[in-house]
Amino acid sequence: MNTRSQYEFQHVCPRNCFSNCTMISRVENDQIMTLSGKRTHPYSQGKLCAKGYSYIERNNHQERLKYPYYQEVKGSGRFKQITWKKAFELIECEMLNIQKKHGHLLPLAHYKGSGNVGVHHYVTDHFFTSLGGTTRIFGSSTATTGFEAMEYDMGTVKMSNPAMIKDSSLIILWGTNPAATNIHLIPFIIEARAKGGKVVVIDPVYTQTAELANLYIQLRPSTDGALATLLVKELLKADCYDKEFLEQHSYGYEDYLEAIGKISKDDLLRTCGMTEKAISLLAQWMKETKAISHIIGMGVLKHTNGGQNVRGIEALAAIHGDIGKKGGGIFFRRKDSRFFQNQLEADSKDTRVIHLNQPENRILPSRFSPPIEMLWVSGANPLVQEAGAKFWAEFLAGIPFVVTVDLFMTPTAKMSNLVLPTTSHFEETDIVTSYWHKEISLNEKAVSPYYESLSEWRIMTELAPRLRESGCSFQIHESEEEYLNAQFTEAVENRYFIKNVSELKNKQFTGSSDRIVWERRKFATATKQFHFFSTEAEAKGLQALPLFVDGPSPTEELPFWLITPHHPYTFNSQFHFLKLSDSEEAIVEIHPKAAEKLSIDDGEVVKISNQQGSIEIKIAFSHRVPRDILVIHQGWYPDSDVNINKLTPPLPTDMGNKGTAFYDTFVRIEKL
Ligand SMILES: Nc1nc2c(c(=O)[nH]1)N[C@H]1C(S)=C(S)[C@@H](COP(=O)(O)OP(=O)(O)OC[C@H]3O[C@@H](n4cnc5c(=O)[nH]c(N)nc54)[C@H](O)[C@@H]3O)O[C@H]1N2
Ligand SMILES: Nc1nc2c(c(=O)[nH]1)N[C@H]1C(S)=C(S)[C@@H](COP(=O)(O)OP(=O)(O)OC[C@H]3O[C@@H](n4cnc5c(=O)[nH]c(N)nc54)[C@H](O)[C@@H]3O)O[C@H]1N2
Ligand code: SF4
Ligand SMILES: [Mo]
């Protein structure tokens, strides 16, 4: 029974976040008065992060877009406020002109980012699919690198309920900083520690999560696979490995063991930038532990050898016998978190797909055949978030008509012709699924749209009838709820036993089974075994075995790694304007000894550059970073010109064709 008062509504935070917290708003006179986390959510348990608690402020922020705006010359800043009617006319006119000129709509492209991951927001993909052949542009989505690596080894990507981490006696966090990026995991980690479990953090940077660990291992970036191999060698030496798993449930382990037998320990230690002492305690703990939980984060993946490093960690987990056991396993993400109709139908058979993160596709829009003449950007801020900001600026400038749908005037919006204001999750109906925990929840509409904002469903619904002539088959529904009802599939019903929105209303949290994945050790590969040897990887020109492949390193000319991780108080390019950050202005963290060598003082503004470009930024001394690493948090710094992706080259990762090796960026520092 719903016992909430008439003025309470349930929402789900739709950020591309592990938690997708459920929250309750209390509304008076069409205004959200208070907001709190919903306590019955099994994963987030009623707590929000700093960004979540700031949502009321964000919702009414003076910089939120109120009206549609148009500028003829992109980047001129000469925006004119226009009516929605005029905006729809402009869009219709552009699309019809493309259709007339080319006889098809392939020059019309759309690019959807991860600004809002709710089911409602797949309406953009759905709409473009309904036009027949158009172009879909992908930027980077590095998770695909991890997915491909896991598919080589296990056939598919699965993950146990992350709350099970509380039962682990040894947790290893590889390249992830949940104290900043996945705060709801921390109580489970603390619970494991309280029960005597040990926590190990492996990261080149001494992070907020490292502070919570029993052991912190500082490794050279992009060498996780080498460290995993070192640990495998230690286990083998001590005869401490899961023989049954290797013999009965794996394929190709003999080849792997033979190959790593030939690699010297000293070489591996040198690669990882470590002494033997640094790994001996971890090796000892591993020998004493039955099953280990390995949590693999984006820090491992955002390198040119990221996928191969994931395979290295998986090989370690397989040899130690962690897979399919209580208190153990590999935690990365679940791949099967999209199962509504509009999520499944992302592309039509005629869609032209362009991966813009691939260097061979980094050409101007007019050079594609057919050229790109119109771009629709939704939930994305590529000018700030994609590698190679200079290229993206030129790319946007080269498209005759760019439409951006957002809540704020971002740098990308400023490089658009038409900027359309859209609703926040308090102003629309949605369903949010999670790639981490298993809950799905309903997001209710609580207040009227901010000024003239329209929901993305509404925008598409208004546009569709105007494009029937061009073959648009997007179906019109009466409401957002009806639209969502039409997206329910058998997969949703099988998992959650619900058929429509109203059933979800009464059954907000569903399907969190505590089954341990791969418990029967029957994998989804061709042999049903865990593959140390992958013919699929080999066929793609990759290593068949999970052996370490070295990546690029700093050079004399570009002596620093630039690591640009996610900040606790911002969300990618969102929330910077709230000034929640302890570093309101952009700063670069550098070890004082490295700065001393360059005669640079704390607080000094310096130039950081490489072959891609340069930025000017303030120095902050920090003992968290090694001497050859600089850290700048990724995101949008609206009060300065700093755009760190001016420095990141479009280097693809080794697997998953959307991956970008953001953390293989090398730079020099100069005094101004
Ligand atoms: N507060 C907040 N939360 C977020 C986000 C946000 O922007 N803000 N973004 C969300 C999104 S989209 C994502 S993808 C996730 C990302 O969250 P995480 O998985 O935590 O990933 P990153 O912040 O990219 O990097 C994590 C750590 O990897 C380290 N690292 C870099 N290179 C290496 C390496 O080679 N090996 C190892 N072992 N470590 C390395 C970095 O120093 C960093 O501390 O967070 C999500 N949650
Ligand atoms: N250097 C460096 N760059 C990185 C990373 C890194 O670690 N280092 N991380 C990468 C990663 S992991 C990711 S996932 C990407 C994220 O980059 P993006 O996918 O671009 O994600 P966001 O910056 O979160 O959001 C993009 C825009 O969506 C808008 N938005 C929010 N809600 C809605 C909505 O309901 N509708 C619409 N239309 N718009 C909305 C926001 O206001 C914002 O302007 O960045 C990547 N870029
Ligand atoms: S950003 Fe993540 S942790 Fe914060 S409220 Fe949203 S879902 Fe929860
Ligand atoms: Mo991400």
UniProtKB/TrEMBL annotation:
Record-annotated 4Fe-4S Mo/W bis-MGD-type domain positions: 6-63
PROSITE patterns reported for this sequence: 4FE4S_MOW_BIS_MGD
InterPro entries (UniProt xref): Asp_de-COase-like_dom_sf (IPR009010), MoPterin_dinucl-bd_dom (IPR006657), Mopterin_OxRdtase (IPR006656), Mopterin_OxRdtase_4Fe-4S_dom (IPR006963), Prok_Mopterin_Oxidored (IPR050612)
NAD listed as a keyword: no
Swiss-Prot/TrEMBL keywords: Iron, Iron-sulfur, Metal-binding
Domain of life of the source: Bacteria
Keyword Iron: yes
Cofactors required: Mo-bis(molybdopterin guanine dinucleotide)
Alphabetized SMART domains for the sequence: Molybdop_Fe4S4
Entry's family note: Belongs to the prokaryotic molybdopterin-containing oxidoreductase family.
UniProt cross-references to PANTHER family, sorted A to Z: OXIDOREDUCTASE YYAE-RELATED, TRIMETHYLAMINE-N-OXIDE REDUCTASE
Descriptive protein name: Anaerobic selenocysteine-containing dehydrogenase
Originating organism: Anoxybacillus andreesenii
Phylogenetic lineage: Bacteria, Bacillati, Bacillota, Bacilli, Bacillales
